[in-house]
User: Fold these one by one.
Assistant:
Number 1:
Amino acid sequence: MHLILAIESSCDETSVAVIKDGVTILSNIVASQIESHKRFGGVVPEVASRHHVEQIIGCMEEALESADVDVSDLDGVAVTYGPGLVGALLIGITAAKTFAWANNLPLIPVNHMAGHIYAARFVEEMTFPLMALLVSGGHTELVYMKEHGHYEIIGETRDDAAGEAYDKVGRVMGLSYPSGKEIDEMAHLGADTYHFPRAMMKEDNFDFSFSGLKSAFINLVHNAEQRGEELIPVDLAASFQHSVVDVLTTKTVRACKDYRVNQLIIAGGVAANQGLREKIKSVMADDLPQVKVTVPPLNLCGDNAAMIGAAGFIEAKKGHFSGLDLNAKPGLSL
Ligand code: KG4
Ligand code: ZN
């Protein structure tokens, strides 16, 4: 398996990539639909599917062209089959199946979350055992990996995902969707003056909870509105971010200690958070300097097909192929 064409369409990005030997990106085309969803304050599934239909063929052509690869050079087609929006996933899956069938190529089904972890492999080789902190709009998980393609979820959110909390709080602050990046930028201009709770931080497990923080935030804003008090937006952002980052960092570092890992990977859309990147790196350097910390570059933290190609390469190596009856699995877990 030398050259893989990879397709990602699980949410609001249509993306197609060509990956060489699992670790080199020859092309990675990402067509974002965010502008279309902004006015609704979130991703509208029907709108997402429609956009994927419009974008997918062009993205495939562009990925092959900019990689300067001929269809006959390809060895396989990797595609996200879950988790995600069913209609959105089906567009990518149908495109992948059709392309694989027409060109007599094997079809490699890939879990979107495995893809997020494998984005780290474009930065440096994985060193097992490793821990991955997966933080996105739909997931917050600590995943232990003792070898390639083997995932054990040792902790996860009991309610909202970290990215979801950012987006919901952003809405209350009047920011546009998705608001993680903007809150992150504001947080750097403010200070943690409101001291929100750090849920489950001291508990002896690796689970998370962000809905209490979200409620505390909303209550503070509503009470201030009723009393006619002014809150300082950058301090609100900083206080919220400090709470999220504190909890994520504390639990992740403890998981790395308990599981005696050699590497920590931070992945998913929220891994783009500057506050989180800086805090985890500095605490790990102090507490566990022997553990390698790998964070993908910003463009590979959000949804993209390159990461699907990287994870697909490992699946193919393990002989995990699928027939043309491959179906979308919206609730797929690792
Ligand atoms: O992985 P992703 O692109 O899509 C999913 O699979 O969910 O993650 C999107 C999430 C959104 O909730 C967005 O607000 C959040 O990642 N996000 C951030 C930042 N950049 C994106 N959250 C915090 N800080 C950021 N800099
Ligand atoms: Zn994602």
Number 2:
Amino acid sequence: MGKWMKAAVVHEFGKPLRIEELPKPEPGPGEVVVRIEASGLCHTDIHAAHGDWPIKPKLPLIPGHEGVGIVESCGAGVTEVKEGDRVAIPWLGYACGVCEYCVSGWETLCESQQNTGYTIDGCYAEYARASARYVVKVPKEVDPFDAAPLTCAGVTTYKAVKVSGARPSDLVAIFGIGGLGHLALQYAKIAGATVVAVDLFDEKLELARELGADYTVNAREENPAEAITKLGGADAAIVVAVSPKAFEQAYQALRRGGRLVLVGLPAEGFVRLPIFETVLRGIQVVGSIVGTRIDLAETFELHALGRTRVVYEKRPLEMVNECFEAVEQGKAKARIVFQV
Ligand code: NAD
Ligand code: ZN
Ligand code: ZN
């Protein structure tokens, strides 16, 4: 337990990350320092490193918001967790706790929020500092390497399925079977829906079938909107693909009264919607951003009950740049989790 730690750092948008030795963080009041065991690679980390979005992250930046590890030290006034607890450090790194959003169950909309691995340093490191109030305890039944992808991919899609309103008689389409999508389809199944999975790669669709998808569509070979319309149209479509085209196809796959849930955040961030059809067909369009601490606790609970399967490949943090490339090319199997 020296004073230094290894971390992967973004210095310039679009340039490779550098593995560096940095001073180990110290916990301030209300904060903890966590010794990271497992750190998931979310596609958001790639967007952050590329500076893809209208709001840019801090630079230099340690990315990563699927960090799981053991609380090593607590700052003054910490009561929420104690040394030795296993916790998850999610995207919602901090919220004010007192605004209208925070007190009404929508802390993920807090205007004073800080985001792990974006506005504050994250978990691509041996140690991470976090607000004790916003880490979430990992139940002992949940393996840390399963817990990491659940910390963003899991909670985000668990919430998106709630937002979709999916019910047992519904047909739910999931566009994009990557880190988020492989879990989205499982939550839609848990909600009782019939699921159609859409991706560009056969291996991803094979995985989707293994995980319970009832139908699959390869969007390179077939128009997904037509294929899903033949099945009666989707009551809800959840889009976690990193491509505006997928959002338009998902819109066209909806039946009357259907709901389009936007989750993926591609760099070129616009979709064209026909006003006339949206109005006459009573279509709903809604954005869904991660989930609250309670959503994450529920996500862990479902996993502890054996109701979800997390598919991941372990990699050393030193391979971060190769791993980014593999995810961008659709070559990674569901999630990559760094062993740090
Ligand atoms: P990923 O790269 O693991 O998965 C994306 C999947 O989409 C891949 O399987 C890819 O093959 C597939 N895909 C790409 N183009 C497609 C198309 N045209 N049609 C169908 N499938 C297509 O990425 P991820 O980590 O699952 O993240 C997905 C997106 O969600 C990213 O943009 C990420 O930033 C965003 N995200 C949003 C939230 C949120 O709260 N809204 C949270 C986490 C991640
Ligand atoms: Zn994420
Ligand atoms: Zn708030």
Number 3:
Amino acid sequence: MQQKIIILDFGSQTTQLIARRVRELNTFCEILPYNKFPVGDDSVIGVILSGSPFSVHDPQAFKPDLAPLLGKLPVLGICYGAQLIAHTLGGSVEKADTREYGRAHLTQVLTDDPLLHGIDDGSQVWMSHGDTITSIPNGCHAIASTAQVRYAAYRCDKQPVWAVQFHPEVYHTAQGKQLLANFVVDICGSKQQWSPAAWVSTTVEELKQQLGDDRVILGLSGGVDSSVCAVLLHRAIGDRLTCIFVDHGMLRKNEFNNVLNDYRGMGLNVRGIDASKKFFDDLAGVTDPEQKRKIIGRDFVEVFNAEAEKITDARWLAQGTIYPDRIESLNITGKVIKSHHNVGGLPEKMHLKLCEPLKWLFKDEVRRVGRELGMPDKLIMRHPFPGPGLAVRILGDITPERVRILQDADDIYISAMQRYVCDDGETLYNKVWQAGAILLSTVRSVGVMGDERTYEHPVALRAVTSTDAMTADWAHLPYDFMAQVSSEIINRVRGVNRVCYDISSKPPATIEWE
Ligand code: XMP
């Protein structure tokens, strides 16, 4: 049986990060809503309570009765989780005089405690809370402090319950990984058997069982997730997987043919459909971004359905949904963070069963699985690309000519990024999360070329660093690189006479312009 750690989510922004850290310890874990205790599931070896945007004194705070949990399985409370345990067991939590935020250093570390083996006195930790524990419950004792916080970490004497008011999952907690390893491996007893290789072999077996002799359809986009999903399924059921790759006309330059060839080279059974005319016709004159997305989504479903209907004996629709896609839609604070879907509405209309083999994986794990499956790096390391493609990178209405201009500018930018090798030997392309060019076709400016006055459009370049696209920083690209790309675009792409660089982070901006 696969062992797992459960992370109960009280709404903290770092809940996903806890999960990633646990997975890095080769241990499977799942994030569940704060009140879904994993009682009676023998595969669960421990539980982590996350932080929260709330104080335990807020009326809207999530305060489940922890009694059914404490004492049954090893529990680690983090930040709010630590305060909730203290509050529940009769300790006190009060508003801190000043909000405890940022770096602090541990003192009085009891390294005899299994949670703190190998953690040094003076080790840096990251605090982020408005409340603080002023007394811990009877039967508990402090195992580490900081200059400001007496109970930086404590544990219960008679129950396997530990609590830390700092965040071991964030990078700024220098020995956070060690602390989490102490909990997951030493305290909970993880055998650390979760790895991409192990995952591939069990998942392929499960897919064989689940799908039997059934036929499966999958929509390929050229992106990492759907490509890895296809190769995985192909390994399980071979040619009973049919992939459909729709060209809506707004892919990157030469993308459709290049990717189609790559897919075929990997042995996939792919039908490539050039539907660009339909999309261009339906988008003619449309300038509103949401309207564009709706039309593209609707047309995509139509084209995909028409092709899928030809595969009359298909029973399943496979999708490359990954874990963050689902966590976002399950977010317990109820805020919708992202509402874009590539193939929304397909399963309901098609009466097919849904197969989502990547649904437990994070993006970096999908890439590791892809490597494990022998996929080429150029497919695995691709930047994310939006479903509606360049349509959301052309301001105003979309014409084939504008798409051509943007494809040319984007191709110069991205190819240069792939060629540029940084000091550490990595290409600039691999160092950024995502990059692309945006055509500001609603703006014109004056320029001069030779003796001629020009009055043309600017192109904006965007490059961001990120781990999951939920937040992103603009990438600090080298000036020599930007200078070279700018002059190459202006000299070679007719219709563009100015290049700008977008220096907005997300939030408050988003990655895409529309
Ligand atoms: P934003 O612009 O919301 O984008 O910061 C976050 C990430 O999602 C991608 N994106 C999309 N992906 N269909 C997709 O499959 C879409 O409609 C869509 N819109 C944005 C975007 O490229 C970035 O990686």
Number 4:
Amino acid sequence: MNIVLLGAPGAGKGTQAAKIINDFEITHISTGEIFRKNIKEKTPLGEKAQSYINEGKLVPDSIVIDMMKDRLSQQDCKKGFLLDGFPRTTVQAEALSKAMQIHAVLNLQMDIKTLIYRLSGRRICSGCGNTTHIEFMNGIDDCNCGGRYVQREDDKEETVKNRLKVYEEQTKPLIDYFAKKGILININADRYKDIVYQDIYEALKSLK
Ligand code: AP5
Ligand code: MG
């Protein structure tokens, strides 16, 4: 099963992806995670992507498409994959549609105001990578794994606003694009995360 997770920044793609890949045993591919790993390791790809990401802009299509062609050709994608953060433009969607069969696109629907709250309060553990929100942290930055919760570089308020603008202009049109292909499934993501997941689970189960 090859699935795309579509949704604005902060809609909960990463949160839901963790549950989906566990239950459906498919490979999780997050373009954002790949870029952040490359930035941390100071690779040539990381150096190319860093300035775009820190300003809340999209990395150019040619770089993303080449990276994804390579990633999708790897052995672990044969059992099925979940794309989180790709495609994000019509050019990327066309490239993906030509290369791979996609069985469903889950569109996580959210109100923009809630997204700013979610993103500016998000914290990620520097040790195990767990994601949480300051709402649940009671002012404590330490994670059980021994790591510390930190803010993502692009979660500063100005950058968040830019990312949401970019989403509206360049990624939102993909909702129509995939609806026309008959593979779009809308999910109300503005609810408790386990309730959101129940709908996703039912939708994916019915595809199997
Ligand atoms: P990427 O890492 O993909 O970021 P994003 O799309 O902006 O999405 P986020 O990871 O910020 O949010 P999410 O939807 O995963 O939400 P999460 O589950 O964490 O991309 C980063 C950058 O890389 C881009 O800006 C771009 O520059 C570049 N890039 C990546 N892909 C690209 C591409 N294809 N083309 C070009 N450039 C690309 O949840 C958010 C918060 O909400 C957390 O605190 C979480 O705990 C909380 N939360 C989640 N669900 C719920 C819920 N139901 N109720 C309450 N709180 C919740
Ligand atoms: Mg994410």
